[in-house]
Amino acid sequence: MTDRTTAPALPQPFVGTFFTDPYPVYARLREAAPVHRIALPDGSPVWLVTREADVRAGITDPRLSVNKDRSGVGYKGFSLPPALDANLLNIDPEDHLRLRRLVSKGFTPRRVEDLRGRVQAAADRLADELAVREGPVDVVAAFANPLPLVVIGDLLGVPEPDRRPFSERVATMLAPEHPGQIVEAVDHIHRFLVDLVAARRADPGDDLLSALIAARDDGDRLSEDELVSLAFLILMAGSENAQHLISGGLLTLLSHPGQLAEVRADPALLPAAVEELLRYAHPNQMAIRRFPTEPVEFGGVRIPVGDTVLLCLASAHRDPARYPDPDRFDVHRADKAHLALGQGIHYCLGAPLARMEIQIALETLLRRFPRLELTVPADRLRWRTSFRSHALRELPVTVRANPEKPEKD
């Protein structure tokens, strides 16, 4: 067994080609040791857990708290105001289960299924706009980014003019060009959501936020900070992750022409393709950070109480000990038990909506544009410079619509 003084100390891995292709770095880390003591870009020391069995166990280990107050050395991370921090990603079981019960009253399967027609209509409208574009078009800006904003904006009752600015501020918060941008973005997001909750309380509608405001459980209800924090989490996760999964999923399919041909020939394969995309190309590199409430051990490495632990989802999803030939994208892969949507009490409440959005988005693009192709080699694409998410900045393609939607003369 090793402790904090003898665990492998590796150089900062988030350099070089990591931002464009992090998986070789993770492969080297997995092979060298199950756990590594590294430094994040802000200098924070963390324990990085890389192997699938350990990551899977860690996600549901009750000794690993998500509450930042459990940090023994003062977790740096994002400095969020309380009105954004009281969400399901930062709360341990007792309060977490209470909030989850209340949220589930508004986030019902029926409410999600009722969105299907609106998701398809939004995807068709964006595809119509793509069909008349001339020359290369950036699918990230023209399709992948706006579609989830329509969906999550409708779900929460966000006024349409406010949706894109909110998404841009979230993107800035997660991948700033300089540290000062984080504070400014968080301040804008905070004020916008406080005003949004106040507006929905004064004038309730048929939307999730209004349902959350009205939700009660044995007389209990969400506090103001909890409402604002949940709105923040739902808007951020519901837009950010879906945007990157659509663009990253399309890139993956375009980069695997054999698999793409199979999905085009048999659209019934699309749900299986989406599950494989969630393993192979999920943008989240890490699960939410954890803090041991008692010493924990992974692969013979002892991690002390209060240290920061990062469970590396991206590495776990490429671990050959769990997934045969893990770097191969395979829509027929039998093992679909990925970790992309969480586990246990941290399983994503919005998982059905995320799956539906990605399926509709990709099916619409593949059906409407049978000759869709990249305009630059895949190795020249631009990616975010963020260790948190492996996400495209842009995805330039040429589109030529099928006969049912003729191109503009």
Summarize the structure in words:
- The protein is mainly alpha-helical and 409 residues long.
- The chain has a single domain, classed as Cytochrome p450 (Orthogonal Bundle).
- Helix content is 47%, strand content 8%.
- It contains 16 helices and twelve strands.
- The strands form five sheets. It has a three-stranded mixed sheet with strand order 1-2-10, with helices on one face. A three-stranded antiparallel sheet has the order 4-12-11. Strands 3-7 form a two-stranded antiparallel sheet.
- A hairpin with a 2-residue loop joins strand 5 and strand 6.
- Helix 8 runs antiparallel to helix 12 and helix 10 crosses helix 12.
- It is globular, with a radius of gyration of 21 Å.
- The N and C termini lie far apart (70 Å).
- The N terminus and C terminus are likely disordered.
Short synopsis of the structure:
By secondary structure, the chain is mainly alpha-helical. The strands form five sheets. The chain has a three-stranded mixed β-sheet with strand order 1-2-10, covered by helices on one side. Helices cover 47% and strands 8% of the residues.
Instruction: Give a short account of the largest sheet.
Output: 3 strands, mixed
Number of helices: 16
Mean pLDDT: 85
Query: The CATH topology is what?
Result: Cytochrome p450
Determine the structural class based on helices, strands and strand pairing: mainly alpha
Strand elements, count? 12
Order of helices and strands: HEEHEHHHHEHHHHHEEHHHEEEEHHEE
GO molecular function: heme binding; iron ion binding; monooxygenase activity; oxidoreductase activity, acting on paired donors, with incorporation or reduction of molecular oxygen
Keywords: Heme, Iron, Metal-binding, Monooxygenase, Oxidoreductase
Protein name: Cytochrome P450
InterPro entries: Cyt_P450 (IPR001128), Cyt_P450_B (IPR002397), Cyt_P450_sf (IPR036396)
